[in-house]
Amino acid sequence: MRLRKYLTEKSFEPVDVPRVFRVAMEWGYDDKAFETLKQLEKMELKGLTGISDAGDLTFQWIGAGRDILLVMNGQEVVENNKISRFLYDNPHYMLSNNMKWLRRMYQRREGEDTPGILWNLNKEVFIVLARRGYITKYDIEYSAPYQTMASKHLVGNAKINGVKDYIKVFRKTYRTIANKERKEDHWNTREFMRKSEKGETNIRGGFEEKFDKISDSEFASVVQEAFDEIKRIYGSEGEWVVKTKVLRVPKKSYLYVMEKFSKEEVENHSAWNKESIARWIKLKDGINKKLKGKYIVKYITAKEFKRVQTIHFSKSR
User: Fold this and answer.
1) What is the pTM of this model?
2) What CA–CA distance (Å, rounded) separates 191 from 186?
């Protein structure tokens, strides 16, 4: 199979390649819009880091400034680009390179907001621990240990490059707050007071005691289950990573363009947006002259899109 030689990434096999990839973009304002036009003309989109195999993107792309939708042949994209599939349920992949892909999923830049990333991940891990009987849901909802454990003074500049690193940081930060709670007159200490032969003791039992007995291999399975849930929540985004940050667009890709102004607005050239309308007319003229023939260009109005979108999502309920 000709396609197989292009599949050098362990993240996917030939069967994983979708029929089409999609990417939603924006023209940008003023001169940036014409720079986007130039890139589309050259069939290379610079700075693009992600594309999607999610079918629903076709019906969700308008909004947040998105006014272009590219629909590209999946096989041709793989043949002409260096891409990898986003492995939402693979903790080794998601936590590699200091949680690089987890940061991307949570929309954090590289090296940014480690406490915020761990807050979200710790919560999923605690939910699995409760499901397995190590703690109760009450422990999570009332004391929110995942929140305390992700605080800046505990996490610091921790580097996490895989499951082992994550487990080590989790154990360390939990031990720190558990020891602190033991020394204080905290509700957790009173809640888990247990009886010994000598009567009441001030040693916290329950989760901490069981937690110490969790092997690294068992904990790794807890982490895996947490990422299975993460995939359930985020996997529908269907993201693939463009590793070179330059997407080579296959010829005859579909290019859906949102009409910025109605026909009536363009014809009337109302004074308050005359300059914007003139810029759009110039941009549209460039699309028609430079992109038609390279792409299958389709214009769509917001009203038309809303109608099709409503029909789609009413059928999917």
Assistant:
1) 0.72
2) 9
